[in-house]
Model the fold of this input.
Amino acid sequence: MGRDPEYLAYMRRRLAAGSAATMAPGRDHTIEDARREHAADLARSPRPPVGVVEDLTVDGPSGPLPARLYRPAGDGPVPGLVYFHGGGWALGDVDSYDPVVRALALASGVGWLSIGYRRPPEHRFPAALDDAVAAVRWAASHTARLGLDPARLGVAGDSAGAQLAATAASLLRAAGPARPSLQVLLYPALDLREEPPDLPDPDGLVLPPPEVRSVLEVYLRGVDRARPDVSPLLDPDPGGLPPALIATAEYDRLRPQAEEHAARLRTAGVPVTLITGTGLDHGFLGWGSFASRPAEAVAEIGAAVHAALTRRSGP
Done:
């Protein structure tokens, strides 16, 4: 059916403005340029007030990691998620994704701990994954300090960050305080073996290519991409994974692998909530201030996160 008129008009304005949200380094375009342009694109979104916002550091395997806590105001522990931002593994940081996490925190009414992990080309695999696992373990052991409920602590991420969240959930699936009670995967990258093809677009939009191939070549140099800790879709035994909430975007080339992952989890007996981002594109979490359709999707994700964490008392 295509995108709704308001959202389609926004996407056409966005593309005409030459959004740099998906740009990656090239011969005349450095990683610093790409990170700066990606941050500028996200900075167009407002930063609405959240009850409590606190910058802090998390103990990582190679030193402190920057983090930012978002939680509702008030006493008593709240459910929470340890969140890993997107940006194609190489772009993005805690501050640039602040508008996205604020929107998710307000929509869900739970706590979000946003983590800054090591990125390529400065740091190769498994640096980001090691940071993600360490951050979840740190959060699980500091819930009182964070005001989070240890029995209702999950992991979350979008795009590349969802690949980290899914893999961290897999590595931490054994019973224990760091086992996530929920995994929230927002338009996730789950199969890194090859770049997925574009999907048919009824509106004829020409979206800029994601340009992550060169980043992955640096990040995963020499690593078998069929390993489950690289491509979590290929987990041979997903039955012990935490319940999952997976959100897709209809015109996102990553949607088929997210849907396949949801189907595999369900077959293995893992509870799955699948939110289909009808009429949307990859990256919509940051666009709720510009069109009603992405705002509706963020609200739906938030409501589902709230329901999933408040109805579970533990793994």
